[in-house]
């Protein structure tokens, strides 16, 4: 996200100031069936998503894969306006990133979302629990 030599941090500040955001499709897998995300039910006070549906289903990131129990794949539309990256993730706690105005962390293949109100569930499907 570079433009005319502006650093990424400057572009993020400008986007946040004017309320710009991207809506992207992301995927979440869980042992639980629900109709909205609840930050209080997470261990990290953040919600992990994958950018790639196939690798998420194959590897089951974040879900406790118990043979014979269902896994649910959530396809979601997520609004993101100010995403931190690896540098910030390695340096700050989640609470500090939120105080700094970040609404997410982009970690290459995964995105961590801080605000469940930015998440719209588009579909839920039960996927084969091929636990290893």
Question: What is the approximate shape?
Answer: globular
Give the integer mean of the pLDDT values. Answer: 82
The spatial strand order of the largest sheet comes to 2-6-5-4
% residues in beta strands: 25-35%
CATH architecture tag:
Alpha-Beta Complex
Rounded to an integer, what's the Rg over CA atoms? 16 Å
Report the helical percentage.
10-25%
What is the count of DSSP helices, taking H or I runs of 4+ residues? 4
Q: Briefly note the CATH topology name.
A: Phosphoenolpyruvate Carboxykinase, domain 3
Helix-strand pattern, N to C?
A: HEEHEEHHEEE
Q: Which residue ranges are poorly predicted, with pLDDT under 50 across at least 5 consecutive positions? A: none
* Secondary structural class: alpha+beta
Largest sheet: 4 strands, mixed
Count every beta strand, where a strand is a DSSP E run of 2 or more residues. Answer: 7
- The number of domains is 1
What does this structure look like?
The chain has 132 residues and is of the alpha+beta class. The protein has a single domain, classed as Alpha-Beta Complex (Phosphoenolpyruvate Carboxykinase, domain 3), CATH 3.90.228. The chain contains four helices and seven strands. The chain has helices at residues 8-18, 53-59, 86-91, 94-99, and strands at residues 22-30, 47-50, 71-80, 83-84, 104-107, 110-113, 119-127. The strands form two sheets. Strands 2-6-5-4 form a four-stranded mixed beta sheet. The chain is globular. It starts with 7 loop residues before the first helix and ends in a 5-residue tail after the last strand. 19% of the residues are buried.
């Amino acid at each position: 996200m570079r433009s005319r030599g502006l650093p990424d941090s400057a572009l993020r500040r400008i986007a946040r100031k004017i309320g710009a955001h991207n809506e992207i499709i992301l995927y979440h897998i869980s042992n639980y069936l629900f109709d909205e995300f609840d930050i209080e039910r997470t261990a990290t006070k953040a919600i992990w998503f994958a950018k790639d549906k196939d690798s998420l289903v194959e590897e089951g990131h974040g879900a406790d894969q118990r043979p014979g129990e269902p896994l649910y794949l959530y396809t979601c539309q997520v609004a993101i306006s100010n995403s931190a990256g690896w540098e910030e993730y390695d340096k700050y706690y989640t609470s500090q990133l939120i105080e700094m105005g970040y609404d997410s962390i982009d970690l290459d293949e995964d995105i961590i979302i801080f605000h469940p109100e930015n998440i719209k569930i588009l579909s839920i499907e039960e996927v084969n629990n091929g636990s290893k």
